[in-house]
Structures are given as structure tokens and as C-alpha cells.
Design a protein that fits this description.
Elements lengths: L8 H99 L4 E12 L2 E10 L2 H14 L2 E14 L2 E13 L3
Antiparallel strand pairs: 1-2, 2-4, 3-4
């Protein structure tokens, strides 16, 4: 059997072109839909990221306010601690003279008489002192120096010039001792 096509070739060619145009339009529509879908996904993702960014910025502002409050409280705490330390140092310094005199009285033997005492505060709990005194004998002087050195409160005990003089009771030793007094805690 032989088939003969009686339709002119121009019509068949036109139909073929129309069919290809429909295919191209369908393919173009499909590409447009695909591009629109991808664009929508990117737009949706971008809007979610923008909302997260705004939420993060709001959280940052809130946390910065909290950090500022914490820093203000830390500064205030440091100020209070500094004031407290000053008060404690003043209280210690106020008691230094009392403890110092008690320490001297404990260490002073019977044969020693204080003539003059000079004190210069080095810190709230220590003081540099100088004694001008009279001793009945060199044994009393040695005993007192030994007692000062072993007391734990007096350090750097140094004996200055010693002179011998006559008094009503006999010969006496005039001397100077310098030391640093450290109040025991």
C-alpha cells in the first residue's frame, strides 16, 4: 500500500512550525515557572534572614543595655570596695599606737628608762620608730635588744651611739635604738 499525501507541503510545514511554537511556548512557560519558583525560594529565604537579623539586632540592643548596667554596678562595687579598704586601713592605723605602746611595755626590762620616742607611720600597720633611752647596765641594754628582735613585732633593730654618763645612782648608758614596728594581725 502506498500512501499519498494530498495536503500541500506548505501547510504541513506551517503545522510543524505551529507545533514547534507551542512546544517552545510550553518550554518557555516551564522555564519562566522554574525561574519564578527559584526566585520565590530566594525571596522567602532572604525575608527569613532579614527577620532573623532584626531579631538579632533587637537582642543585641537588649544585651548591650544589660552589659551597661553590669559595668555600672561593677564600677559602683569597686568604688565601695575602695572606700571599705580605706576605712579598714584607718581602723588599723588608729589601733597602731595602742598596740605599739603595749609591745614596748612588754619588751622593756626594769633597768631601761625611755627618755624620748619618735614614730613615723610607714603604712597603716607599721611604723618606723626611734628610742632615746637610758640603761642601768650593758646587760639590760643587751637584754632589751634581744627581746625586741625576738618579739616578732620589731624588725631591723639597730643600736645607735652609746655614751656613758654619771647619775645619782651611778654610771648609766645613754643610747639610741631605731627599729620598724609591725603590728601583728
Amino acid at each position: 500500500m502506498i500512501k499519498i499525501n494530498l495536503i500541500p507541503s506548505e501547510i504541513l510545514l506551517r503545522q510543524k512550525q505551529q507545533y514547534r511554537m507551542v512546544q517552545g511556548a510550553a518550554l518557555g512557560g516551564l522555564v519562566v515557572l522554574l525561574v519564578m519558583g527559584v526566585s520565590f525560594l530566594h525571596y522567602h529565604k532572604a525575608s527569613k534572614l532579614e527577620s532573623r537579623l532584626k531579631a538579632g539586632e533587637a537582642e543585641l540592643v537588649r544585651l548591650q543595655e544589660i552589659v551597661a548596667k553590669v559595668q555600672a554596678l561593677e564600677a559602683q562595687g569597686a568604688s565601695v570596695r575602695a572606700r571599705l579598704n580605706v576605712i579598714i586601713d584607718l581602723l588599723k592605723g588608729r589601733l597602731l599606737s595602742t598596740y605599739f605602746l603595749q609591745g614596748i611595755l612588754k619588751s622593756l626590762p626594769n633597768g631601761i628608762w625611755l627618755m624620748n620616742l619618735t614614730s613615723n607611720a610607714v603604712s597603716p600597720s607599721s611604723s618606723k620608730i626611734q628610742f632615746n633611752a637610758v640603761a642601768r647596765s650593758s646587760e639590760d641594754l643587751a637584754d632589751w635588744i634581744r627581746t625586741l628582735e625576738n618579739s616578732g613585732e620589731f624588725s631591723e633593730v639597730e643600736l645607735g651611739p652609746v655614751t656613758v654618763s654619771e647619775s645619782v645612782t651611778g654610771k648609766v648608758l645613754n643610747f639610741t635604738i631605731s627599729s620598724i614596728y609591725q603590728m601583728k594581725q
